[in-house]
Amino acid sequence: MARDLRPKHKLCRKFGEKLCDSPKCPLLRRSYPPGIHGPSKKHHTKLGSYGKQLLEKQKVKRIYGILERQFSNYVAEASKKTGDTSKFLLHYLESRLDNVVYRSGLANSRAAARQLVTHGHVLVNGKKLDIASYRVRVGETVGIKAKTHQSKLFENRTETIAKKDMPSWLSVDAKALTAKVLNSPTVANPNFDANSIIGFYSR
User: Fold this and answer.
1) For residue 174, what are the CA distances in angstroms to 105, 110, 141, 157, 161?
2) Of 40, 91, 130, 189, whose Cβ has the fewest other Cβ atoms within 10 Å?
3) Per residue in 153-192, pLDDT tens?
C-alpha cells in the first residue's frame, strides 16, 4: 500500500495551516515555512494562479492522506457528474471509510483511522472491511470489532466521543462504538478551495 512518508509537520509549516491532528504541531511555535531562510522566506514568496491552485491540491491530499493517482481519479469521476463538481469531490473524500472512522471519533486522526481499517479492526454493517478508500453509503453502519474494544486505545473512547462535535450526517453510539451514515457527507466550511482544485485539473 502506497503512503506519503514525507515529514507531516513540515507540510503544515509549508502551507501555513495546521493540517494535522496533533496538539503539538510545530506550526503553533514556528508559523513560517521550513528551511534555512526561516521567517524571512514567507515575505518573498509570490504565487500566481497556477501556484495557488497547486498548493490547494497538495493541501487536500495532505489532509486526507491521499496520493496523486487516487486523488486525480476522484476529480475525474466528479467532473463526469452533472452539477457542482466541487461538491461531488468533497462527497467522495468525506465518504471514505477512514474519514468516517475519524469523523465519528473512533480515531484521533485520519492516519490512526486508516491504520485501524487496514489492520482489520473496523466493521461495516457487521463485516470486517480493511479498505480505507471504501466509499461508505448512506444507511451503512461503521463500528469497531468487539475484541478491539478491550484494547487500551479504546479505554476512554466513550468519553472522547461524547465530547466531540459530530457532523450532522453521522449518528454515533458512543457505548457501542458505532456510527451510522444518515445523509450524504457534507463539509460546512472546508479549509480549502475545492473549486480551485477543479480549476487546476481543468488546465
Assistant:
1) 9, 18, 13, 8, 6
2) 189
3) 888 888 889 888 899 999 999 999 999 999 999 887 777 8
Three-class DSSP category at 180:
strand
The residue whose grid cell reads 486505545 is: 153
Closest CA to 169 of 79, 99, 73: 99
DSSP letter at 136 equals: P
Decide: residue 175, CB within 10 A, 0-12 exposed, 13-18 middle, 19+ buried.
exposed
Give the predicted TM-score (pTM) of the model.
0.83
Q: What CA–CA distance (Å, rounded) separates 145 from 136? A: 17
Non-local (6+) Cβ contacts of 69 within 8 A are none
User: Per the structure block, which three cell numbers stand in for 23?
Assistant: 496538539
Query: 142 near 105, Cβ under 8 Å?
Result: no
Domains, in order of start, for the chain: 8-83+191-201 (1.10.1050.10), 96-181 (3.10.290.10)
